[in-house]
Design brief:
By secondary structure, this protein is an alpha/beta fold. Helix content is 28%, strand content 14%. The protein starts with 13 loop residues before the first strand and ends in a 36-residue tail after the last helix.
Length: 373
């Protein structure tokens, strides 16, 4: 692969199994909280995704598929037929722009709170280990993190089935595939990592046992969407109080095992922009490239040039961008033309619950009289 004269390798097409991507720029899943209290996808969300549909692939914000999976205010769900039908508005609008879109299936695990759940049920996790953090935003305002309830062995197949049903609903809504959120300290990541998984049954202890939950989910979801399932992991991250001393052994095993499946891609948070646990040298895309032979997506803190270098070196096939896409709906066009980026969005409006900080960022406009507008 060589850089085309005047054209970054990021802007070249890529064939994701059965899907022709117009470029190698992916919009990373980002929680944006515009679905209201009923968690219903809507026209404002459709506008947001369409604004960013010049990407080769869009991955939606994390989407809970059961009441137990919820842990964030106003995030969209795919728990019901009504929510599934509402997602079709978003999917159809994006497809009209010629862009594939995957739904990220998200179970918050211990990073939730009893006030999100029916009858005040506590959050669940592999083990009763509380997040070491200041507070969580809940329907009742800021609340301390709670000690989660450890899942019983007999409950686990039901959660695997919930993932499978979520994939069925995603297929019904017209999504091109799904991504399993196995990163950033949410339920699947909690099972993978020794810091949060201290079980003594077949889902805990050894790295093989800790991987079992993810493997069962992958198998179940692939039966619904063959070849159209991605997995998102974060071996270096500290978000939601993560980071395990045996992280390298764990995630190399995860990569080897996932390579046995016919996945659409493996999505690795290799960048350190959200913090690094410092429990050894950070894991790199090159390590995963040596073990996972399918499409590989790098993520976190990339700008245009390092992203192109990662693809040029064949360490990654695609690069996903998160925060740059918030304030630059035309990020691909800016990369294409060498245009400057909008200033980063003020975090105070990331979760405004309306169009402010969501669909109101302007596309590039040429400077007038030496001043940008």
């Amino acid at each position: 692969m060589t850089e085309t004269a005047g054209k970054s390798v990021l802007l070249t097409p890529f064939n994701l199994p059965g899907l022709a991507l117009k470029n190698r720029v992916v919009m990373s899943p980002m929680t944006r909280a515009r679905a209201g209290k009923e968690r219903m996808p809507n026209a404002l969300m459709a506008e947001y995704y369409v604004q960013r549909a010049s990407a080769g692939l869009l991955i939606t914000e994390g989407t809970p598929f059961s009441d137990q999976a919820v842990g964030w205010l106003n995030c969209p769900g795919i728990c019901s037929e009504a929510q599934t039908a509402a997602w079709k508005i978003v999917v159809d609008a994006v497809h009209a722009r010629g862009t594939p879109i995957f739904l990220q299936l998200w179970h918050c695990g211990r990073a939730s709170h009893s006030s999100f759940h029916k009858n005040g049920e506590p959050p669940v996790a592999p083990s009763p280990i509380k997040i070491n953090g200041d507070y969580i935003h809940t329907p009742k305002g800021k609340e301390p993190y709670e000690t989660p309830r450890a899942l019983e062995r007999e409950e686990i197949p039901g959660i695997v089935e919930d993932f499978r049903r979520g994939a069925e609903r995603a297929r019904s809504a017209g999504f091109d595939g799904v991504e399993l959120h196995a990163a950033n300290g949410y339920l699947i990541d909690e099972f993978l990592q020794s810091k949060t998984n201290q079980r003594t049954d077949e889902y805990g202890g050894s790295v093989e046992n800790r991987y079992r939950f993810l493997d069962e989910i992958v198998t179940a979801v692939l039966a619904v969407l063959p070849g159209r399932v991605g997995v998102h992991i974060s071996p270096n991250g500290i978000y939601n109080d993560m980071g395990s001393p045996d992280f390298r052994e764990t995630f190399l095993h995860v990569a080897r095992q996932l390579n046995r499946h016919d996945l659409a891609y493996l999505h690795v948070v290799d960048g350190l922009a959200f913090g690094f646990h410092g429990l050894g040298a950070p894991m790199t895309l090159a390590e995963f490239r040596g073990l996972f032979k399918g499409p590989l997506i790098g993520n976190c803190g990339y700008t245009r040039e390092p992203a192109a270098a990662a693809v040029q070196s064949r360490h990654a096939d695609l690069i996903s961008f998160g925060r740059p896409f918030i304030s630059n709906p035309d990020l691909v066009e800016r990369f294409t033309n060498g245009w400057s980026l909008n200033p980063p969005a003020d975090q105070a409006v990331w979760y405004s619950f309306d169009e402010v900080g969501y669909t109101d960022f302007p596309p590039y406009s040429a400077p007038e009289n030496g001043k940008s507008r």
